[in-house]
Task: inverse folding
């Protein structure tokens, strides 16, 4: 049985706010498991742990849906970082 590599978080930090802690992605899914969107939260422990492909989906969604996405650095990090 193949194990799915789910050990990534999406971190976002506003470029102009030095010293302020980053926020993390919490993915919203339908009952059927379909991707619906993302909330960015302060609590790293409650953030969604995901695969690299899911993390890329979050980054793409944030770039399209957030009008001020250019003001943020959004990146994929490993859970332990």
Result:
């Amino acid at each position: 049985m193949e194990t799915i590599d789910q050990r990534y978080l999406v971190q976002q930090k506003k470029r102009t706010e030095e010293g302020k802690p980053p926020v993390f992605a919490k993915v919203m899914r339908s009952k059927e498991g379909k991707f619906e969107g993302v909330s960015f939260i302060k609590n790293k422990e409650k953030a969604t742990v995901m695969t690299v492909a899911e993390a890329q989906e979050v980054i793409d969604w944030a770039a399209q849906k957030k009008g001020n996405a250019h003001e943020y650095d959004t990146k994929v990090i490993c859970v332990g970082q």
